[in-house]
Specification:
five-stranded antiparallel beta sheet; six-stranded mixed beta sheet; alpha+beta; binds adenosine-5'-diphosphate
């Protein structure tokens, strides 16, 4: 069942229930009010009759004789039926319009009269004719000696109620029909934009055109928000799709070069180089280099894929100063004496992190610094604490990074002019470093002056438990050349 039909059925149903409850309440209230108005009128008329009886009789003689003289009662009977009964309930006088038929008075009612109280009842005369009857005692010297009964047909009131009933029924049916028709129209109008949105989304899926967006007519209503969400989702899908395509292209490209080298060297070996010890050694070493490069690339890719899938790091307190010292020593080995590696200011700092990943990050930065700094240059490592943060900087005096490359160097496979520096990189090192920094709630930033050098700054939040005193080295520089 469509939403439109369901909506229409729901609110038509609810309206029907509301009308029914309201109509029933109103009708019963109205009929009870009409009956009580009628009862008041009957009581009034009964009082009139009693007043006349009392005026025409001397109470003492009535008490003595036990009889009262009754007035002609037809004058009271223009629209009423009047009957006077004695204290046993026997009719003693009736208005002519009763045509000899008695207004009944049950034993219970006679007792009511004897106790000096009034009452009323509805008399069904058959064939849909009903009378409302009021009875009240005739009292002389505080003794009830009989009763006056006044009746009136309910037909006028019932006719009025019947008209009201049918008007209400007709009105309710009309209201329900209008609600159903209006509901269908409203639901259709309200749901039309959704149909449009889903049709456009379907077209986008069929055309596989993730660049298209659904136009938004009213940006702030619920449908505008839905469209916005779908458009955001499309944008994200588009980016992911493009990234994936680029990744596949980049990976194939990256793998092609080492594979070509390996195949070339294998060819060389097959064509006789295997017998020449020098050529053989060169070919095998080239194959070894390229396979090493390929496995590095595959490992990096694997790590990034795991990072994308939400790889959890193992956090523990890490003494960052000790880690920086380790990296500094390793950097000295990696620099092979071609560059000066220095350790600048080094504060003590405790962070919560994954020591292996942080080491990998710093080694990546140091590796790049060494790769992109010509022999004789200098690399400096510093560690400084500042208001809840610690910053590790790797500064080099290398070739630097051009301004237009700087915003992209953390992107996967991005390499600023691959012909520069020493080969061997895949363009993934900084992406991995950036991910590690972010996974620690930190940041990694680069600044550079082309031709003069670059600085990479890693900022990490200090561990809360870090109570270690800050020791500032005034001139803590170590250097090797
Ligand atoms: P690669 O494996 O190519 O070094 P990275 O992701 O580590 O890949 O670095 C991306 C690019 O950023 C490098 O290709 C290089 O152009 C630039 N780059 C990174 N570090 C430095 C640096 N210290 N000096 C100059 N350029 C750098």
């Amino acid at each position: 069942m469509s939403i439109r039909t369901r909506l229409t059925l729901w609110y038509t149903g609810l309206l029907a229930i509301a009308l029914l409850v309201f109509g029933a309440l109103l009708y019963s209230l109205l009929s009870s009010v009409l009956v009580s108005v009628l009862d008041d009128r009957l009581a009034n008329q009964a009082r009139n009759v009693i007043t006349v009886i009392q005026a025409e009789n001397d109470p003492v003689s009535v008490m003595l004789s036990g009889h009262a003289r009754l007035p002609p009662i037809d004058v009271f009977a223009s629209q009423y039926y009047v009957q006077i009964v004695n204290i046993d309930g026997q009719p003693v006088q009736q208005s002519d319009n009763l045509q000899g038929r008695a207004l009944p008075l049950s034993q219970e009612m006679i007792s009511t009269v004897r106790s000096g109280r009034s009452g009323n009842y509805t008399l069904d005369l058959g064939q849909g004719v009903r009378l409302r009857v009021y009875y009240t005692p005739i009292i002389f010297a505080q003794h009830p000696i009989g009763a006056v009964q006044i009746g009136q047909s309910l037909s006028n009131m019932e006719e009025a109620l019947a008209v009201i009933r049918s008007t209400m029924l007709l009105g309710s049916i009309t209201a329900l029909l209008l609600a159903a028709v209006g509901g269908v129209i409203l639901a259709r109008a309200a749901l039309r934009p959704i149909q449009y949105i889903s049709a456009t989304a379907r077209q986008i899926t069929m055309a596989e055109d993730l660049g298209r967006r659904i136009p938004i007519s009213v940006p702030n209503d619920e449908l505008g928000q839905l469209t916005n969400t779908i458009n955001d989702m499309l944008a994200r899908l588009e980016t992911l799709f493009q990234t994936q395509q680029r990744l596949v292209a980049d990976v194939s490209h990256e793998l092609r070069t080492p594979l070509t080298t390996i195949r070339g060297n294998l060819d060389l070996l097959r064509r006789g180089a295997v017998d020449d010890p020098i050529m053989r050694a060169e070919a095998l070493s080239a194959i070894e280099d390229e396979t090493g490069r390929m496995s590095r690339l595959v490992n990096d890719l694997l790590l990034l894929a795991q990072a994308d899938a939400g790889l959890k790091l193992h956090f523990e307190p890490v003494e960052l100063d000790t880690l920086v010292l380790e990296v500094y020593r390793q950097a000295q080995v990696m620099a092979q004496g071609n560059l000066a590696v220095r350790l600048g200011a080094e504060d003590q700092a405790l962070v919560l992190g994954d020591a292996d990943r942080l080491r990998q990050l710093l080694l990546n930065l140091v590796d790049n610094a060494i790769k992109y700094t010509p022999n004789g240059g200098q690399i400096t490592l510093t560690l400084k604490k500042e208001s809840g943060w610690v910053e590790v900087a790797v500064h080099d005096t290398g070739i630097g990074i051009a301004e237009q490359d700087l915003p992209h160097i953390f992107e996967r496979f991005y390499r600023a002019d691959p012909s520069r520096g020493r080969p061997g990189g895949s363009g993934l090192g900084l992406s991995i470093a950036h991910w590690i920094a972010e996974a620690h709630g930190g940041r990694l930033e680069a600044s550079s002056v082309p031709g003069q050098g670059s600085t990479f700054r890693l900022g990490l939040p200090l561990a809360d438990t870090d109570a270690a005193p800050v020791i500032m080295d005034e001139d803590p520089e170590f250097a090797i050349a």
